[in-house]
Amino acid sequence: MKKPVLEPTEEEKEQLIFQGVTEQFMGRLEVQEHKKSLFVSITFNAKSPILAAQIATEVANAYIESGFDSNLEMTEKAVGWLTERLSGLKDKLSASEQKLIEYRKQENLLDVQGIQTVSARELDDISSKLIDARRDRSKLQSIYSQIQRAKKGGIEQYESISGILDSPSVQYAKDKLHDAQNSVAELSKRYGPKHPKMKSAQANYNKAKNSYLSLLKSVARGIEGQYRAARSNEDSLKRDMSQSKQEIRTINTKGFKLKELEREVETNRQLYDTFFTRFKETSETSGMQGANARIVDKASVPRVPVKPKKKLIIIIAFVFGIGMGVVLAFLREALNNTIRNPADVELKLNAPLLGVLPMQKLKKTEVDKPLLAFHHENHSDFSEAIRTIRTGVVLSGLDSEYKIAVVTSSIPNEGKTTVSLNLAMALGQTEKVLLIDADMRKPSIAKACQFESKNGLSTLVAGTADFNDCIQRFEQWNVDILPSGVVPPNPQELLSSKRFAKVLEILSKKYERIIIDSAPTQAVSDALLIARYANEVIYVVKADSTPNALAKAGIDKLKSIDANISGVVLNQLNISKTEKYYAGGYYGGYYSSYGYNQE
Fold it and tell me: Hey, which bits of 59-194 come out as E strands?
């Protein structure tokens, strides 16, 4: 059962109608922005110019009114949001301030920066004193160590300690001892040891010596006391420095915490002030509507229709047509991979150019006309081109005897039979020539010459007929023709046989020139078999038709068996299209200067 189709309601119908009208209206409306400016232009397409101007103006007014309403709505929303946000920010600011006050009370902090400065100065002072104490202690420690070692050797060892000898009192006592010693020495020269003066001098000496040794001990004990005092002072300064550092670390920790709380208070205060300022600005401007756009130039009623622009359409179509034509021409030129002109022969095929045969304008009843064009039109461009090819063939055999020439092509219908027939007729004017139809698969020479003969190359090689039965004589051409004869079941076996080579050997003794029309190289390999017995190969290429890759492949096959390619004949060349490839339009004007007319 088919499901019942639900009819739209009246409301849905109205919505569809409204949607259709809106889409049609928007399709006629155009808003264009002017680059690098704040201007836009509004245009509306309508049959009535007055209606078009009115709608454009009303659209601009509607946009401005919509901007007013939008601004007012956004302002009201902003005021409500700012009010709610300010309440939360105020509570957050009060909490951070209270937290800062409580921390200051807890840690008894007034000026952390000042305390840090004083502590740093005290630490610097203690460091300086500690350095001095270490230097003094180090100096005394060296003398103290010498004294401790000297005690083991006796008191006389103190005299070797520079720190003791540097004492002024020691120096004085030492001088007194020297004086007493010198007095004893002087008196001993005059008096004996028991002399009163001698005894008195000796007593003075002993007294000076005892005084000197006693002073050494006293100075040593004084240095020991100084060393212990210096070491005690150094240890005390070390304890003071350690305590000072600990106090600074404690102050820094409190300072960091205090700065963190102060930054939090400052951040909350700035945020609150910012929102409060914005709230005041928004509240004050809520009643004032700022226009986001204004009409600079009102829409005017057009005097002439703006669409359709017939002249512009015609110009665009004309330019587009020319452009497409040029593009297609270049595209066709780029995609054309054929041999189009004589220059392509040497460039693309890497082979010499033997000659060029011009294209002939033929009627429907003259399809076979080119086959015998040299005979029927002896003074045409085509005939002169055949003579040029004949000259090239003759000159190629001046240094060596080139008797047998094979004419072949890449594919069928390139004109190899036409070249074979007309070249044989041209050579027949000066030499004794034999034309052999060796295209055993698709023979055409017998039909072109309008004779029928079952005997030919196949029967001659097979031995079922002799030379007189197979060769046809044409006196008006001065050419003998050996048709293909009956088509054999396997032409390659016949052409590769020793009997075929023997036939060519006999014929080459009877004729000055033998032209062999062979099958295309890309269709079968008959031409490769025949080329082994030939002196030269003439390769026919149809202009603007044969792909260069196909022609080059055929020539490469012949070169692979060491065939002598005398040149390439470019057939059916449109002279009018290729005159630019020849200086001064050579093929277009050469023959006409001698009274020949191109057909």
Answer: none
CA distances from 562 to 118, 134, 530 (A): 111, 110, 12
Which helix (H) or strand (E) segment holds residue 480: the answer is strand 479-482
Whole-angstrom Cα distance, residue 24 to residue 28? 7
Residues in the chain: 599
Rounded CA gap, 569 and 574, in Å? 14
- Please give the backbone phi and psi of residue 487, each rounded to the nearest 5 degrees, phi first: -70, 120
Domain boundaries of the chain, sorted by first residue: 308-337, 340-360+368-594
For residue 29, list its beta bridge partners. Answer: 44
Cα–Cα distance for residue pair 38/295, rounded to 1 Å: 12
Phi, psi of 300 (to 5 degrees): -110, 155
CA distance 186 to 198: 10
The rounded distance, in Å, linking the Cα atoms of 559 and 68 is 90
pLDDT for position 57: 80
Interatomic CA distance for residues 558 and 567, integer angstroms: 12
DSSP letters for 415-463: SHHHHHHHHHHHHHTTS-EEEEE---SS--HHHHTT---S-SHHHHHHT
Tell me which H or E stretch contains 461. helix 457-462
Place of tokens 């027939």: 421
Mean pLDDT for 531-537 is: 90
Query: Among residues 539, 543, 554, 568, which one has the least CA distance to residue 341?
Result: 543
Helix (H) or strand (E) holding 88: helix 49-107
Q: How far apart, in whole angstroms, are the C-alpha atoms of residue 217 and residue 225?
A: 12
Tokens 């010459």 map to which residue? Answer: 449
What's the rounded Cα separation, in Å, for the pair 291 and 38? 14
What's the fold here for domain 340-360+368-594? Answer: Rossmann fold (3.40.50)
CA-CA distance, 69 to 56, in Å (whole number)?
20
CA atoms within 13 A on the CB side of 354: 26
Helix, strand and coil content of the chain, in percent to the nearest 5, comes to: 65, 10, 30
Other beta carbons within 10 Å of 448: 18
- Looking from the CA of 392 toward its CB, the CA atoms found within 13 Å total 21
What DSSP string runs through 106-124? HHT-S-HHHHHHHHHHHHH
pLDDT surpasses 80 at 414 = yes
Phi and psi of 32, rounded to 5°?
A: -120, 130
Q: Which DSSP state fits 596?
A: -
User: What pTM value is reported for the model?
Assistant: 0.47
Residues facing 42 on adjacent strands: 31
List pLDDT tens digits, range 109-163: 655 555 556 667 777 887 887 788 778 777 777 677 666 666 666 666 666 566 6
- CB 337, CB 566: distance < 8 Å: no
